[in-house]
Every structure is written in C-alpha cells, then in structure tokens.
Design a protein that fits this description.
This protein is an all-alpha fold. The chain is built from ten helices and no strands. It has helices at 2-16, 23-30, 34-40, 44-68, 73-87, 95-102, 104-131, 141-158, 162-180, 183-195. Helix 4 (44-68) runs antiparallel to helix 5 (73-87).
Length: 198
C-alpha cells in the first residue's frame, strides 16, 4: 500500500503540482481514507520527500536505459530531452519550480542528489562525443559539465511554465552542443533540431 500511495502521489504531484495536491486529493483518487495515508506518512512533506526520491530513481533508470542503447552522444541527449518532455507533458507549472518555491528544503535535498548523478551522465556523454568525433578534443570537460548543469537547473528552478521551460531547455541543449561540436557534430545537431518538435 505504501508503494501504491507513493506512485499515485508522484503522478499527481508531477501533473498538478506539489502545492495544489492535498492528502484528501490523493485519498480520493485512490478510493482510500486519508487515515490510511497517514498510517504511512505522518505529513505531506514526508510523502513529497519519498515521492521525489522515487521520481529521481525512475528518471535515472530511464536515462540508463537510453544510454545503454548506444546512440551517438548528440542523439543520446535528444532522446533524454524527449523523455523529460514526455514525462512532464501534462504539467502546466514546472514541478521543480513549485518544489523550490513551496518546499525549499526538500528542493535543496533533491538538488544535492541530482548533482552527482547528472554530472556523471554529462561527463560520460561529453567523453563519448569526443571519442566519436562529434565534440572537440581540446575542451575542458569539467567546465562544460558545470556550465550545462547550472544552465539546465537554473531554468528548471526559475521558470514557472513547464512549456516555456521545455523551449528554453532545447535552446540550452543547442547552445551546449554547438559550444563543443566539431563540424561533424554540427551536422548531427542540425539533423536533430530539424526533426525535434516541442
């Protein structure tokens, strides 16, 4: 039952927001009593904490699956971008923005969790791109990881509209890729930009 509550709550938080969803809403959606939810979670903050941990785990499992498909480095980034777009397509307001605004302490814990896993994925992608001749060999990998992380998460945390955030994130991906790309990488990037719809 605990896992079912976390799963339903995660889904509702992502679609409708961390602030607007109440324990009553979750109980109503699941056809259970609010008392049942409180048996496992003494308050909404703990449920949000566990839900964000579950979402984090699911996101990184999907990213690992995408990476395992052996796309080239640029294609891989676009596939990950599509996954986020699909995951948040029904959200009007950015979930990360809401979390930062209404639950800043939980947001800080989520971000400290994200930084290590995201940076490892970014580094793996950059090194793969260099090896494939899509990114230049002489770039400072650590700096580019930091630039990309700061750009992506600043947008997520400071843009309330999910749709607007998605558009800016695509521009960040283009900016990041162009900054590193070889001529071969630019051709690959242009191909994906042509076929990508927001």
């Amino acid at each position: 039952m605990k896992e079912k509550i976390i799963s339903k709550a995660s889904d509702m938080f992502l679609k409708l927001g961390f602030k607007s969803i109440t324990m009553d809403d979750i109980a109503g959606e699941m056809c259970i009593s609010k008392k049942t939810i409180y048996k496992y979670f003494c308050n909404k903050e703990i449920l949000i904490e566990e839900s964000t941990a579950t979402i984090h785990k699911e996101v990184h499992q999907i990213i690992d699956r995408i990476i395992s498909k052996n796309y080239n480095a640029i294609e891989e980034n676009f596939e990950i971008r599509k996954m986020f777009k699909e995951m948040f397509k029904s959200s009007a307001t950015s979930p990360i923005y809401q979390l930062k605004k209404h639950y800043p302490e939980i947001y800080d814990r989520v971000m400290s969790r994200e930084i290590n896993e995201c940076n490892a994925a970014f580094e793996q992608n950059i090194r793969k791109g260099i090896q494939q001749g899509l990114y230049r060999e002489n770039i400072n990998v650590e700096s580019y990881i930091q630039f990309y992380y700061l750009l992506v998460f600043n947008i997520k945390a400071n843009t309330s509209s999910e749709n607007e955030g998605q558009k800016i994130e695509l521009e960040i991906l283009e900016y990041h890729t162009r900054a590193m790309a070889t001529q071969k990488g630019i051709i690959e990037l242009e191909k994906h930009l042509l076929n990508y719809t927001i």
